[in-house]
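We examine the record.

___
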Amino acid sequence: MKKNNLKQLIANLPETPGVLGRKRFFNSAVLIPLVKIKGEYHLLLQKRAAHIRQGGDICFPGGKYEETDETFLDTALRETYEELGIKKEDIKILGQLDTYVAPIGTVIDSFVGRVKKKAYLNMKIDKNEVEKTILIPLEFFKKHKPLEYTVAHEIHPFKFDENGEKNILFPVEELGLPDTYKKPWGNKKHKIWVYKYKGEVIWGITSVIIRDLIEKYEDNDE
C-alpha cells in the first residue's frame, strides 16, 4: 500500500464507529415513551393490529427508517405521530440506548422520551396499525423478572421448495469449501425474554429493549 493510499484510508475511518454493513440490514428506530401518571412513570406500549405484519405483537411506536428521515430519531418521532398521533413537540428526548443488531437481521435505534400527560390523554391511534395501547408502570418491570428461554439459529445453505426440489442458496461445493458447510451449521444459542402483564405477552426485540432500559433504571435507583 502506498503512503498516500494509507493516508486516504485513515481519513475515511469513521470518527464515531457505527454498525458495520448496516446498509445490508433492515434499519429501524423506536421511541420508548415514558408517561408520568400520579407521580409514577409508566411505559407506553402498543399492540399491533391483527392484520398487519407481526400482528398482535406488543411493541414500542416506531418502524422502518425512510430516506426522507434525516436521522433515526426522526424515524422514531415520525412513526410515533403516525401511529399514536403524538407530536414531536409533546415529547422530550432524554437519551438513547445502544444500537441493537437483532439475530433476524434488523438494526434498531431506541430513543427514550418523556411524553406530556395531556398528549397521552389526547392520543389519536391509527387503528389500521394499532389495536390498542398499554400503559405499564416501570416498577412492574423492576419487581417482575422476565421468563427466560433459549432457542437455536442455524444457517441453511439450501432449502426444499413446495415440490420437494432442492434449491441451493450458498454453493458450498462449487466454492470448494469444507464439507461441514454442506449441511446446516451454526446452531447458535439465542436468549428470549418474556414478560407477562394482565394477560398480554411482551417478548422479542421489545423485551430486549425493556430489559436493557430497566437495568439502567435500577443502576440509578435512589
Summary: The chain has one domain: 21-219.
